[in-house]
Design a protein that fits this description.
With 212 residues, this protein is of the alpha+beta class. It contains 7 helices and 10 strands. It has 3 domains: 35 residues, no CATH class; 103 residues, no CATH class; 56 residues. Helix content is 33%, strand content 25%. The strands form 2 sheets. It has a 5-stranded antiparallel beta sheet. Strands 6-7-8-10-9 form a 5-stranded antiparallel beta sheet. Strand 6 and strand 7 form a beta hairpin.
Length: 212
């Protein structure tokens, strides 16, 4: 059974000075209303997220948001700018986006306020903002999740078109293309079919391609 008082004090922005007020207020509310009452407004969540991102790290910021999403039941696979549930706002290429966590496996969904095209540059931009995640597209929806690839025992691949890019075939057959030049990565990637995962490592754009 949820302890709404503890949740409010830890995640809702309330302090110990609010205990009596919270007890009285929560006592008169149904469970769903209690959760809504103690959930911080979007402005507070976004402010905390931005502060943690700037002062600590991107991972610390998403860890905070993932934890609060679990504890306050903010997980959703159908996010909307109607904001029935608060979400973290993003500015990508000058356009308004948001992101939420879908499930307990830390899969996140990124969605636009307007109907925007999904481009490779947008996905790499997102990967640069959140380098701890791999960014991918599933059913015309942008998603992110923690994902690691077995990098050992890779085989170097030579391509005439890869003047600035490094191409490797990993042990499991995954193709890894890395470069400081995103355009060349996508040109080289035309030779390989499969699910693409966008990443950013040490200021380089990285594309992983898992064969279908």
């Amino acid at each position: 059974m949820l302890n709404y008082l503890d949740l409010a004090l830890k995640y809702g922005g309330f302090t110990s000075l609010d205990k009596v007020y919270l007890k009285n207020k929560l006592a008169s509310l149904a469970d769903a209303d209690k959760l809504a009452f103690i959930t911080p407004p979007p402005s507070v969540i976004n402010a905390y997220f931005a502060e943690i991102y700037q002062k600590q790290s991107p991972k610390a910021a998403t860890d905070y948001y993932f934890e609060i999403s679990q504890k306050l039941q903010l997980l959703t696979d159908k996010p909307s700018f109607d904001e029935q549930k608060p979400f973290v706002r993003l500015n990508l290429s000058g356009k308004s986006y948001g992101f939420v966590f879908e499930n307990e496996e830390e899969v996140a969904q990124v969605f636009s306020e307007q109907d925007e095209p999904i481009t490779d540059s947008l996905l790499f931009e997102l990967a640069q903002i959140f380098p701890q995640y791999k960014v991918f597209v599933n059913a015309q929806t942008i998603k992110m999740k923690p994902l690691t690839f077995e990098e050992g025992e890779s085989k170097q691949i030579k391509e005439d078109s890869a003047l600035l890019s490094d191409i490797q075939r990993l042990k499991d057959g995954t193709i890894k293309i890395s470069s400081f030049n995103q355009e060349e990565i996508m040109e080289v990637a035309k030779a390989y079919q499969g699910q693409r995962y966008y990443s950013y490592v040490q200021r380089q754009a990285v594309l992983y391609i898992i064969k279908d």
